[in-house]
Amino acid sequence: MVLLHALGKRGSDWAPVVDRFLESFQVVTLDLRGHGDSDRPHEYSFGVMCDDVIGVLDQLQLESVIVVGHSMGGAIAFLVAIDRPDLVKRLIVEDVSPPYERDQPIPVRAPNAQALDFDFAAVQAIVGEVNAGSPATWEGLASISAPTLLIGGGSDSHIPQYKLEEVALRIPCCDMVTIAVGHHVHAAEPEEFAETILDWLEA
Description:
The chain is about 40% helix and about 15% strand. With about 200 residues, the chain is α/β, with parallel strands linked by helices. It has a single domain (about 1-200), classed as Rossmann fold. The protein has a six-stranded parallel β-sheet, with helices on both faces. Helix 2 packs across helix 3 (about 70-85). The longest helix is centred in the N-terminal third of the chain and has 14 residues, at about 45-60. The radius of gyration is 16 Å and the shape is globular. The two termini are about 15 Å apart.
């Protein structure tokens, strides 16, 4: 099981649920580029992060894995499943932002802001890419062959849940479950989140 974190987080953000998953799986948690202990190359996009994840899986000689992604990590997980279906046995995405065009402000960092655990340039690049949307990714969702579970955070999430429903309808084999606690489902309700995933995997 490979866990991909959200924008501005790191692999350890999965701490509330990782021990539960370790009871059943070998678990790999990555610090995506620009985050945590990974390099900060100042080149950020969903595409290059997807390539990074694929590179890690190939380097570790892993295939047919369960990929779990939250928010930005979910967007990257979609691309991995689209580009390398041989690598993804099951796909699980948590309250991921669908690739539709929108207009949200690009964050600006104050000059005297405290040190961060991530490269702020990654935030600006990813928010800009999210705003632009991706028709190619939207089309690509229909080619995902891995059985997929989409977990939505409900009305308290900033992600429009009806858009998640559109994503679930587009992926050929996709179940959608709502755990109505907001965007950070795995942190707010770790036991329910983990049990939902494990029950789905065993079904």
